[in-house]
Write a structure and sequence with these properties.
Helix 1 crosses helix 8, helix 3 runs parallel beside helix 4 and helix 4 runs parallel beside helix 5. The chain is globular. 43% of the residues lie in helices and 15% in strands. The two termini are 29 Å apart. The protein is α/β, with parallel strands linked by helices. It has eight helices and seven strands; from the N terminus they run βαβαβαβαβαβαααβ. Bound molecules: NADP nicotinamide-adenine-dinucleotide phosphate. The site of NADP nicotinamide-adenine-dinucleotide phosphate has 26 residues, from helix 1 and helix 6.
Length: 244
């Protein structure tokens, strides 16, 4: 797949760590002008040290107004990846309003906020555009202790489809990827218990979790013109989990 994002201004949220960081570096390598949004300055500093062409945007997505101001200051944006998310895991009976509000504020309301600003500007400029939301397999299947996180990703999937429906007439495509467990540093820690991992892997026909690169590549594909007729899909990146 020949990829070049030259001339594109690209916003990646949650680019301080994990999938978002790797994606930001790859998009910059393919000549896009990348804006990396995240909460912790130290992580952004490390990203910029790795690639000084990337521009940092340090803001907490829980702050609606500060986020609007920060994103407005970097418009126009041609491609947006809503990747930032928080994970609050607990058994359903122990879920708390605090965990619920934090999760939904970042994983759903944060996406709505940034996407509104970016899409309004795309519409005013009549430029078209492209948005990819990083969802999760946990938005499509029930996973133990994932009641709040999974529900937020289920909501994100519906937000993706509704945005695709309403923004498509403006030539703005909106899609999601729904990965299984991804072996980021955090993913490795969270799923190191062999018994816990076995429950997921035994239902995955490829018999393993995903590498970061195996999620980055489908996102690059959805952001590129190679997927120009794909709109409103929630693409499982799950090694066959949903097929079983
Ligand atoms: P990660 O390593 O935990 O990184 C998350 C990023 O989001 C960090 O850069 C973090 O900022 C940022 N972030 C979190 N809350 C924020 C806030 N309030 N404001 C601004 N930035 C915020 O996550 P990941 O594992 O790479 O996951 C990336 C995406 O993939 C998420 O949407 C996740 O739900 C999805 N996903 C992950 C897996 C997995 O197994 N890893 C599986 C399925 C789906 P800081 O740098 O400040 O921490």
């Amino acid at each position: 797949m020949n990829l070049c994002f030259q001339g594109k201004r690209i916003l990646v949220t949650g680019a301080g760590q994990g999938i978002g960081r790797e994606l930001a570096l790859r998009l910059s390598k393919y000549k896009g002008q990348v804006f990396a949004l995240s909460k912790t300055k130290k992580n952004l500093d490390s990203l910029i040290a790795a690639d000084p062409k990337i521009q940092p945007v340090c803001v907490d997505l829980q702050d609606w107004d500060a986020t609007r101001k920060a994103v407005q200051s970097i418009l126009p944006i041609d491609l947006l990846v809503n990747n930032a998310a928080v994970v609050c895991l607990s058994p359903f009976l122990n879920t708390t309003p605090k965990g619920f509000d934090l999760t939904f504020n970042v994983n759903v309301k944060g996406v709505m906020n940034i996407s509104q600003i970016v899409a309004r500007d795309m519409i005013e400029r009549k430029s078209g555009g492209n948005i990819v939301n990083v969802s999760s397999l946990a938005g499509q299947v029930a996973v133990k202790d994932h009641a709040v996180y999974g529900t937020s990703k289920g909501a994100l999937d519906m937000l993706t489809k509704t945005m695709a429906l309403e923004l498509g007439p403006h030539n703005i495509r909106v899609n999601a990827v729904n990965p299984t467990i991804v072996l980021t540093e955090r993913g490795k820690l969270g799923w190191s218990d062999p018994q816990k991992a076995h429950e997921m892997i035994s239902r995955t026909s490829l018999g393993r979790f995903a590498e970061v690169d195996e999620v980055v590549k489908p996102i690059l594909y959805l952001l590129s013109d190679h997927s120009s007729m794909i709109n409103g899909v929630c693409l499982p990146v799950d090694g066959g989990f949903l097929a079983t």
